[in-house]
Amino acid sequence: MDAQLLKKKVPVAKNWYEFEKFNAAFSDEKFWGDHPKYYATIRQFEFNNGLFLIARSKKGLTTWMFEKTINQWQLIDEFFPVMSDETHWDKPEYFMTITPIVFNQELFLIARDKKGLITWMFDKPNMKWKREPIDEFFPVFSDEKFWNKPEYYATIKPFFFMDKLFLIARAKDGLVTFLFNEKDMKWKQAPVDQFFPVFSDEKLWDKPEYYSTIKPFVFQDKLFLIARDKEGLITFIFNEKDMKWKRAPIDKFFPEFSDMKMWNKPEYYYTIQPVPVKDKLFLLARSSKGLITFLFDMKEMKWKRTPIDEFVPEFSDQRNWNKPEYYSSIKPLAINNKLFLIARDKRGMFTWTFNMPSN
């Protein structure tokens, strides 16, 4: 997908440009704003040189592809029955863990049910999810082992690094990091890094305003992790030689995101998202006045304290973006070395693109 396929509108900030909505498929009128068990499962991602989206409805999982020729979202796989309300996927401890991940040019789907973690694979020739999982009931994440608690299940995050598929999650004692074995297509039972103590319950990381912000990401062949505590944003880096997270943060207490500055409210902390685009690393977040965009300084290994773009009014509280059915849909994406932003309001799904800085 590129900017030429969408009709450009006037700029809404010095760097962000608004585009026409794709269509009304995800509007409030079509009931996408009624229940978190549906709108909270909307996940946008790039795969196979295209833009895709998954979302869970009453009958199961739906998969959509953006059709460039008609500028519309097209349904390609409907009502994957495993994830229907009838099969109990309407419970947050299950639907909130539904995550697509691209690994070695293949598309996987990871989700947790009462018995543990399940991994599915996408059938590219038929453009549908394979109905049988490739790895079922990874027991580490079962209800029996307390992974039905939000402070734990909400932190399950798969990611791709060093040609390997990883997964992090926060347990009572801290962060655990797992590795996928691509030979037998299953998750290894033993973590490669266990109980990273910084993120333990004892250190108050069982609070949603903190654990919800834990996000791993890869930039310039390095693995990073950001998280927010009461004093602000913290950034960590992974040591690939010993396969462990370095215990000391490389950037500590970025004050812009402190509790004192009201970032302990879900309509703000939930939107904090890093996104690498080519040779630049961005951080997006929504405040009461709108969207803020920051840039990472690779020389200093710190976030620049001054935003490069501030307060896009389209995303302000005044325009109702403090409602969970809207702010939870805000998703930045890197597509063809460009920065895009996709979000849903009462009218449907919209997109914006960013005017990339030259330096």
Detailed description of the structure:
The structure is a single chain. The protein has 359 residues and is mostly beta strands. The protein has helices at residues 36-39, 92-95, 150-153, 208-211, 266-269, 324-327, and strands at 8-11, 16-19, 43-47, 50-57, 60-67, 72-80, 99-103, 106-113, 116-123, 128-129, 135-138, 157-161, 164-171, 174-181, 186-187, 193-196, 215-219, 222-229, 232-239, 244-245, 251-254, 273-277, 280-287, 290-297, 302-303, 309-312, 331-335, 338-345, 348-354. The strands form six sheets. It has a five-stranded antiparallel beta sheet. It starts with 7 loop residues before the first strand and ends in a 5-residue tail after the last strand. The model is unreliable at 1-11 (pLDDT under 50).
Descriptive keywords:
mainly beta, five-stranded antiparallel sheet, 6 helices, 7% helix, globular, disordered N terminus
Strands ordered across the widest β-sheet: 1-2-29-28-27
β-strand amount: over 45%
- The rounded distance between the terminal residues' Cα atoms is 24 Å
* Low-confidence region ranges: 1-11
Radius of gyration: 19 Å
Characterize the overall form: globular
What level of helicity do the residues show? under 10%
Multimeric status of the protein: single chain
Q: Give me the number of helical elements.
A: 6
> How much is the average pLDDT?
90
User: What's the story with the biggest beta sheet?
Assistant: 5 strands, antiparallel
| DSSP E strands, number | 29
Instruction: State the secondary-structure class.
Output: mainly beta
